[in-house]
Structure formats: structure tokens, C-alpha cells
Design brief:
The complex is a heterodimer of chains A (about 325) and B (about 280). By secondary structure, chain A is α/β, with parallel strands linked by helices. Chain A has helices at about 1-15, 35-50, 65-70, 85-95, 105-110, 150-165, 170-185, 195-200, 215-225, 245-255, 255-265, 270-275, 285-290, 305, 310-320, 325-330, and strands spanning about 20-30, 55-60, 80, 115, 115-120, 140-145, 210, 230, 235, 245, 280, 300. Classes of the chains: A alpha/beta (about 325), B mainly alpha (about 280).
């Protein structure tokens, strides 16, 4: 007992004599677990050599919308790294925890890495799925989460819609019919990206999973590359998952400086390499070239070009009574 | 003396004010204030907006599924839960204690774990689902799956309310009935069953109420398709994730009012059943 006490005392002394230990909370969305695990270690090392302080970054993961809601309701995030800008806008608008122009605080609209939506199919691609129009064929079963609850699903929906707009010469009625046909082929709408991956990979439901590019790579790594193929369609959407400093929380915790450095370091060579290794498309050209083998080239449209930004897309497509709701409304 | 006792404010049993005060405070903190907040948030909607939210086709379909499946699950449990309780009380067999403990499992298991487990078992490639797949019966990701999950979580309520009544049942009554010439079926139907009815109704109400609010297990086994397999709690969640708090609470208010009316009806039924019993037995 006495020795135990002594050990405890020594440990306590060691910690207090040591440099400060700083705690950060990064509230993120579902598929970034592996990315930030690796990145947090790298950043802790970098910060230690730079300032001598220890940084411990705690991570919280979940559906992007739900995570934003937790922060609004008081989860003390120092930084948020979410799936789409709309969710961070909501934090700024509803809880006023960060300025409305948060997107201008870091380079590239505060998105240090980008991603896109690809198809994960069963090995050998038995249904011969190569492009978006293969998804609406009768007898093809498509697994995708609910865009009302999942950020990745919203990107997937918009990617399909963008394809339809391009194909039908921006005829909105035809695009709507296309998207309706697509969601008729969806047997299960999970609430988040991980849920859909499990439904597709473990429960054996569906012929194709619409997934984040990184999630598709992760799934094939996790469940065995001999089970699935990744199909990159010729056209998809440039998904921009943004990062932001939650200024009020950081100020309260006295972590503004380190939290800022944490986000800035994502743009460093090391940060970009970690992103690329985890199958997020890096912004840095040199590193993008180095990891070119990880990323198939395709035409990427942006939400601003095709849909006039998130606020408009949200109101038209995902709000109550929007295009997505109409898909499931009975025919009159 | 008697008059003095009657007029004085001291009660025979001490601690009345303290415990009543505590009860009111506790209930306010735990139940009343959150409920009031729900109604307050909803009041941010205008009346036409409120009506529009709660009568949208998606909402109507979700009520049908939630109330229908919960009702059916509670009914199924009333029949089979009664049998389980009967077996546990009336017979002695090897492993009875174990079976008895098993009944509480749905209470103890985190509902998400239950949902994932059930979804895996009943999926087309799952241990149980594979036998139904060739028959063209799909369980996971259909309404049937929702029913399975709700039945699972409701079972202990029936068993645990019926069990003590059965245990307290005096064998003399049955013996008396038998000596008066009642056959076994008559003894059960005319003597045992009416005595059990109030407990059965209570258990039914509890299981039903529990199923209405269930979220964790259902979202995993349901395919969550709007108009088909979406339960009301999930619809509320999707509204919350869209930051539509008034819309979410509007649906919650509907659920609350409906449940309240249903539970009230069940309570009246129970009161009636009790009275019927009392007059019949006396």
C-alpha cells in the first residue's frame, strides 16, 4: 500500500513538474476516426518539439448533423471537423459559438482535404455497375444512408443529382425523376455512413454502396479486398468537409492558440500526407501527385456551381417537403 | 379526544410534508419540467404550421407503424408472456432460475446492442434469417423486423407484472372450484384468468408504452424508409438533425397526447376489471 502511495506521489510530482498538459476536443463526423487518430499523434509530437507542452486531443465521432447539435447544446468542442459546411453554419447561427465567416479563417474555404462519393460493389462487379445510370436499373439494389441524418448521404444524393443534371441538359424535372428512381432501389436507409457500410459489407444487403471515397477504401481494407471492388464513376461531387475553430469554447478553455495550430497543421506537408494516406484528397499539389495512385481521376462538380451553395441546396432538397421528401410521398 | 385528534394538523404517520415536498420537487425536475419544455418549444409554431407538421403523409405513416407495431407487440407478449409467467410459477424444472433470469435480459441489455444483434440474426444471411429467406419472408429491414424488436423489449413487462399475482394465488380457490365440479378449463377461464386480468392489463400498458418510445433497437433492424418502415421517434430524430426543434417537439406532443389518452383508457379498463372482480368474488 505504501509503495503504491509513493508511486502515486512520484507520478503526481512528475506531471506537475513537467510542461503543461493541454486538452483539446475535436468533434468530428463518422468516417474520420482513423484519420484523426493518426493526425493527433503527429500533431502532439509537433507541438511537443515546438513548445514543450503535451497536447492530448480527445475525439468525438457521430453523424455530422448530430455532432453539430451536440456542440450547439453545449458539448465543449475546441474545434469542429464536420462533413459539410451547413452543419458548422448551424453552430454559428444557432449558438453563436463562432463567427458566421468561419469559412474564411483557413485556406481553401477551411477545407484542408476533399473527398468524393464512389461506388463499392461486390467482387468482380457482378451487376456491371460503372456509372450513375446503372444505379436506377430495375433489380439493382443501392445502399446509402438517409440524407436527412447523414452528411455523406447528402453528398451522395447531390452527386447523383449533379450527374442527372449534366446528362439531361439541366432539365430539373428529368433529374428529379432520375433521383426518385434511384431511391426506389434503396432497401435500407441507415442514419449514418458507418451504419450503411455495415449493412452492405456484413449483412450482405445490396449490390452497391454509395460511400465516401475514404470509407470505401477503409471497408475494403477492413473486410478484405477480395470481397469488394471500388468503382469510381466518371463524374461525382467535390465533397468539402470543412474545419473550424469554435472560438468561444476555445477562449473559455484558453486553447485558442493550440487549437488554431491544430487546424493549421492539417495544411502542413505532414498533415496533408496523413490525409492522403487515409484516402482523403490532399489540397497540396505535390502530395496529391505523390499519392496519385490512391485517387482515380474523375470530373468533380462543386455544390456552388450546380446547386448554388449549401443553404439553397438544403432548402430545395433536404428541408421538410423538399425534393427528398417528395420521393417517398404517395402519388396523387 | 377524538375531536382533538381530528382537528390537529399532526398526522399519525410522521414525515408527510417532507416526503410530499420531496415527491413534488422530484417529479417536477424529472418529469414535469422536461414535458413543459416540449410544449413550450412546440408553441413556437403557429397553429397551421403545427397542423401541417403533424398531418404530413410521412408523419401519418409513422404513427400507423409506431402505434400498430407497439400494439401488436404488446398483444403478442400478453399471450406468450402469460405462458412464460405460468410456467415459471406453476412448474418446477431444471434450470428454472436461469430461465427466470433470462426474462430480465431485455431490461438490462442496451437497446442498441439488442437492435444490432437482432438485425444480424434476422438478416437474410443471419442465423435465423437464412431459414426464412427461401420462404420469401424477410424480417430484418422490414416492418416485421420492427415488430420483432418491439416484442423483444416488451416481454419482461408482462411476465414481471403477472408473475407475483400468480404466485399469490391461493390453491384453495382452485380446489373449491374443482370440488364444485368445474373442469380444468373452467377453473382457468372462470377463476384464474379474471384474477389475472388487471395485472395483465397493467403489463400490456407498460409494454405498449415502452414500445412506443423505443428508438435504439428499432433503428438498427428497420430499413428506416419514409412511409414504409419509419417509426415516429426516428422521424423526430431526423427533424432534430435538421435543427428543426419546433417540428420535432410537435411530433413529440402528438405522441404524448396519444399515449396519455391510451394509457388513461387502459387505466379505466383496469379499474373496471377490478370492480368486476370484486363484485364477482364477494
Amino acid at each position: 500500500m505504501k509503495t503504491l502511495l509513493n508511486i502515486g506521489l512520484v507520478l503526481a510530482l512528475a506531471v506537475s513538474a513537467n510542461a503543461k498538459e493541454i486538452k483539446l476536443l475535436n468533434v468530428s463526423y463518422d468516417p474520420t476516426r482513423e484519420l484523426y487518430q493518426e493526425y493527433n499523434d503527429a500533431f502532439a509530437k509537433y507541438w511537443k518539439t515546438k513548445t514543450g507542452d503535451d497536447v492530448v486531443v480527445a475525439q468525438s465521432h457521430g453523424g455530422s448533423g448530430k455532432q453539430a447539435q451536440s456542440v450547439i447544446n453545449g458539448l465543449g468542442a475546441d474545434v469542429v471537423t464536420l462533413a459539410l459546411a451547413y452543419d458548422i453554419d448551424a453552430i454559428a447561427a444557432q449558438a453563436k459559438l463562432l463567427p458566421a465567416n468561419w469559412g474564411e479563417k483557413f485556406p481553401n474555404n477551411s477545407t484542408p482535404y476533399t473527398s468524393t462519393i464512389v461506388f463499392l460493389v461486390r467482387k468482380g462487379n457482378p451487376k456491371n455497375i460503372h456509372n450513375w445510370d446503372d444505379l436506377v436499373k430495375a433489380g439493382t439494389s443501392v445502399v446509402v444512408p438517409n440524407p436527412k441524418t447523414s452528411g455523406g448521404a447528402r453528398w451522395a444524393y447531390l452527386a447523383a443529382y449533379a450527374y442527372a443534371l449534366e446528362t439531361f441538359n439541366h432539365d430539373d424535372a428529368k433529374a428529379r425523376a432520375f433521383i426518385k428512381q434511384l431511391y426506389k432501389n434503396v432497401p435500407v436507409l441507415d442514419s449514418g455512413a458507418r451504419g450503411s457500410t455495415v449493412t452492405f459489407a456484413q449483412r450482405g444487403i445490396g449490390d452497391v454502396l454509395l460511400a465516401w471515397e475514404n470509407e470505401a477504401h477503409l471497408a475494403s481494407k477492413e473486410f478484405g479486398a477480395d470481397k469488394f471492388d471500388i468503382v469510381t464513376p466518371p463524374l461525382s461531387i467535390l465533397a468539402e468537409p470543412p474545419v473550424a475553430l469554435v472560438t468561444k469554447n476555445a477562449k473559455k478553455h484558453g486553447t485558442t492558440e493550440v487549437a488554431n495550430a491544430y487546424l493549421n497543421y492539417l495544411y502542413s506537408d505532414e498533415g496533408q500526407e496523413i490525409a492522403a494516406k487515409n484516402f482523403y484528397r490532399p489540397r497540396n499539389q505535390a502530395i496529391a501527385t505523390k499519392y496519385a495512385a490512391n485517387f482515380t481521376q474523375l470530373k468533380l462538380v462543386t455544390i456552388d456551381q450546380e446547386f448554388g451553395g449549401w443553404t439553397k441546396a438544403q432548402a430545395t432538397h433536404f428541408a421538410d417537403g423538399g425534393v427528398f421528401d417528395q420521393i417517398f410521398q404517395p402519388q396523387n | 379526544m377524538a375531536q382533538k385528534l381530528f382537528k390537529s394538523k399532526t398526522r399519525v404517520l410522521p414525515g408527510f410534508r417532507l416526503t410530499l415536498g420531496y415527491t413534488l420537487l422530484y417529479l417536477s425536475l424529472i418529469v414535469l419540467i422536461p414535458l413543459a419544455a416540449v410544449f413550450w418549444k412546440t408553441s413556437l409554431l403557429t397553429w397551421p404550421q403545427f397542423v401541417q407538421v403533424i398531418t404530413s403523409p410521412q408523419a401519418l405513416a409513422a404513427y400507423r407503424l409506431s402505434f400498430g407495431a407497439s400494439l401488436l407487440a404488446a398483444l403478442i407478449n400478453s399471450v406468450f408472456g402469460l405462458i412464460v409467467a405460468w410456467v415459471l410459477v406453476r412448474y418446477n424444472f431444471f434450470g428454472k432460475k436461469f430461465v427466470d433470469a433470462l426474462v430480465d435480459l431485455p431490461f438490462a441489455l442496451p437497446t442498441a446492442v439488442a437492435g444490432i444483434t437482432l438485425a444480424t440474426l434476422y438478416a437474410p444471411n443471419g442465423w435465423i434469417g437464412q431459414f426464412f429467406e427461401p420462404l420469401g419472408i424477410k424480417i430484418s429491414f422490414t416492418r416485421l423486423g420492427v415488430l420483432v424488436a418491439l416484442t423483444f423489449i416488451g416481454l419482461p413487462f408482462i411476465v414481471r407484472t403477472v408473475q407475483p399475482i400468480l404466485e399469490d394465488f391461493e390453491p384453495e380457490i382452485e380446489e373449491a372450484a374443482a370440488s364444485l365440479g368445474a373442469n380444468r378449463w373452467q377453473v382457468f377461464w372462470r377463476i384464474i384468468f379474471p384474477t389475472l386480468t388487471p395485472a395483465l392489463i397493467t403489463g400490456f400498458a407498460l409494454a405498449f408504452a415502452r414500445a412506443l418510445g423505443e428508438y435504439g433497437s428499432v433503428v438498427f433492424i428497420s430499413s428506416n424508409i419514409p412511409m414504409k418502415t419509419q417509426i415516429v421517434p426516428l422521424l423526430i430524430m431526423t427533424k432534430l438533425e435538421q435543427f428543426d426543434y419546433p417540428g420535432a417537439t410537435a411530433l413529440a406532443v402528438v405522441m404524448l397526447v396519444f399515449s396519455f389518452v391510451l394509457l388513461l383508457t387502459i387505466n379505466v379498463l383496469q379499474w373496471w376489471a377490478n370492480r368486476y372482480n370484486a363484485t364477482n368474488l364477494s
